[in-house]
Amino acid sequence: MIKAGQIDKGTALLIKGQPFIVVDREFVNPGKGSAFVRLKLKSPATGQTLSETMKTQDNVDDIMVTDRDCQYLYNDGEFFHLMLTDTFDQLEVPMANFPDYEFLMKDGETYRCTFWESQLLDIQIPPKVVFFVAEAEEAVKGDTVQGATKYVTTETGLKVRVPIFIKQGEKIRVNTETKEYLERVNN
Amino acid sequence: MKKAAQFRSELNRSIRTFFDEKGYLEVETPSLSPDLIPEPTIENFATRFDNEFVGSSDLYLIPSPEVYMKKLIAQGFGSIYQIGHCFRNSEQLGRHHNPEFSMLEYYSVDMDEQDSIALTEELFAYLDGPDHLRPPFDRLTVSEAMWQFAQVDLDKNQSQKALAQEARRLGLSVPDGPESWEDTFNRIFLTLVEPNLPQQRPLVLDRYPAQIDCLAKREGNYRRRWEMYAGGVEIANCYDEETDREKVSAYYRKQYAILIQQRSERGSVIPDADPDFADIFDNFPQCSGVALGLDRLQMLLMGESNIEGVILFPFSATISSRK
Fold first, then answer.
1. Chain B partners within 8 Å of A32 (Cβ)
2. Same CATH topology for A2-60 and A66-124?
3. Do B214 and A32 touch (CB under 8 A)?
4. HSE-up of residue B122 (Cα within 13 Å, Cβ side)
5. Which residue does chain B place closest to A16, by CA atoms?
6. pLDDT value of position A145
7. CA-to-CA distance for B114 and B129, rounded, in angstroms?
8. Where are the domains of chain A?
């Protein structure tokens, strides 16, 4: 049991018997009242999201989670296939539960994963990742409203808006939360 | 940050011109006080006056200038305003909170809370911000908002038990243990109502439930109190100020008892209470007071999403540099 005020992003909670991961947390102090915390939660089992508001003094069931390394093997359009690097056990995770992750994870790369007992709750994508520019369209002249940008596609299939000087074959650093271009990476 | 400082300087100047032209007197009242008005949900900062010869005494940083300003009104100062710092301890840090913040507080004598809406609309017209910060303000009563966004009829749910049942019907968790009506109300309000309030224009949310105890006059199941939201952020609070000495006294005793009980459990600062507070109300005129968060207002006017973008030395940066 923890107090709701102690909850942070990434905390794993048991709500009505189901594990949830906190994806967003905001404190609110209504004009005259006690302090509350507004949570956005996600169920790793179903992908379902949930909004909850709790008093910071409310007791909540937290769950003990462990982090383990998993290597991302491939996806078959329906499941991600991962392998635990310590036991070589393979896992299938429904892709629908992690929207967009297919464009963020690289084949063969190892990711920290959050487990509750044997259930995978979360795949931790680093906040900034370097991608290889697999395809780059030609810059369109005259489009300076947005400060001269164009789209490129990374080796994972992620489409990113970048400055026009980025060329195919170069590397770029991307914010994986907003999927925005951060900088060019020199070899 | 220099841009934010220049913006604040101009904003303060505009506010002063606006109120000066209306004949309001600008006042400066103390930040250090030997006693505070009991507000159980607002934690306080305590400090100490020490003098080798005179002796020492406990002092508290004011969470709002309310008491001192009401003392001036009782002395016949007429309508007054103040731009000053307020201090709220263990205020959660983040987008919209800093433990030390700036408040614009204005009291209008011979006016009620509806007049204060008109005055605040004039102020916002004068500040000439973007469309979503301009009058006319949208208006909703709290019960209209609860009905519109949560389908909860407040008049039919005056007991905590009934309201908790409504909350559960809406899929919210309410603990089985005892809980105040206000806390249950806030579970519903903060989850289903506040995030969905219209944001195209400033919104006045009027007539707060009487169960939320405060020093605004009561009228049936409601109090003559409003809160203003702009861009989805709560930025002002207004009362038709209670003037009845007995009612103020009763409120004060009850809140102080709650404060002592809650803070003894938590071990947080228990400020002294002013034994003569009610005397202010022996001869207190009809008036309406508005407290407006100045940092939040500036944040919205500048299009910032975080209050720390307009505070020159945000508290979170100050404490993290000391860790």
1. 39, 41, 182, 212-214
2. no
3. yes
4. 12
5. B173
6. 57
7. 22
8. 2-60, 66-124, 128-185
Beta-carbon separation of B191 and A58 below 8 A: no
Please tell me whether the interface predicted TM-score (ipTM) of this complex is above 0.85. Answer: no
Q: What is the pLDDT of residues B107-166, one digit of tens each?
A: 999 999 999 999 999 999 999 999 999 999 999 999 999 999 999 999 999 999 999 999
Query: Count of H helices and E strands in chain A?
Result: 0, 16
Residues B262-298 pLDDT 10s: 899 888 999 999 888 899 999 899 999 999 999 999 9
* Cα of A113 to nearest chain B Cα, Å: 28
Asked if B95 and A32 come within 8 Å (Cβ–Cβ), the reply is no
Alpha carbon of A52: minimum distance to chain B alpha carbons (Å): 7
Domain A2-60 belongs to what architecture? Roll (2.30)
The 3-class secondary structure across B202-213, one letter per residue, is: CEEEEEEECCCC
Nearest CB to B173; choose among A27, A35, A52: A52
B135's tokens: 């009058």
Q: At what angle do helices B2-21 and B113-127 cross, to 10 degrees?
A: 130
What is the reported pTM? 0.81
Q: Give me the architecture of the A128-185 domain, per CATH.
A: Beta Barrel (2.40)
Q: Name residue A184's beta-bridge partners.
A: A172
Whether residue A52 and residue B183 make contact (CB cut-off 8 A), yes or no, is no
Amino acid A76: pLDDT: 94
Which CATH class, in words, describes the domain spanning A66-124? mainly beta
Cβ contact (<8 Å) for A27 and B175? no
